[in-house]
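Input.
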Amino acid sequence: MLSLGKVPVLTYHKAEVAPPQGTDPAFRRSGFIHPLHAPGGGMVTGIHPKDHYHHLGLWHAWVHTEYDGQTPNFWDLKGKTGRVRFAGATEIRDGGFTAAQEQVAYLDGPDAEPTVILKESLAIDAAFVDGANVIDYVITQTNVTKKPLALPAYRYGGGVAFRGPHGWNKDNSDYLTSEGLDRTNSHATRARWVAMFGPAEGAEGKEATVAILCHPKNHDAPQRIRTWDNGKVFLNYVPTQESDWEIGPGKTVILRYRLVIFDGKPGAEAIDGRWRAYAKATR
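Output.
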């Protein structure tokens, strides 16, 4: 658990977390964050929802890939073709840590030892800035094989993903993007930032906002997003929603995002100011 003073901010899971009892054990996974907390302590993430047991608070994984004639999916665990796993802590520091993770493919079947395709570091740093919990989420991925990992264009996968609390619905929550769009019209649009808001769990119904900022140096920035219009809250920044990409042998890519978590519902101008400061400070 990472805390600021006595107030919890987030929990990163090194050990595999099992899905709910009676669910396919393939949905177990390590290397993700849940819960995230607003400054007042309320929780603002959900895990293992019945509609998508592989949704895990705050996480990332590639979905639609091609590798040596196969199509490993590191996101959808039920298919048993790939997964993301914790591989060790590389640094612990004040306000943050860096974890080693691996995206592995089951090229010889789900019962065989998987092949490590991507070795990655996930750097997480948190601070309390002007009334908000601010979390930097930086993914550095290296293809450690001798063959390319192709990333065909697809509607989701790759960048940071967020699942809101299970109780968020069309009546008590919504999205707001940097372009002024909401849950009805934001899917597949580009956004410098996306804010999601609803009642924080454990906070007596008080509202909280999670804004996720996409760094302008990211591949295909401002990246396109996947959002839902069914009342539930899911967000994914997708580096390959429009165009194919590839991580060649020995090549390294970096994706940077910042989360700004508020109590209440700040306006677009305040969030846009946070994005401008982020873009200027992190180059």
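The helical segments are 268-281.
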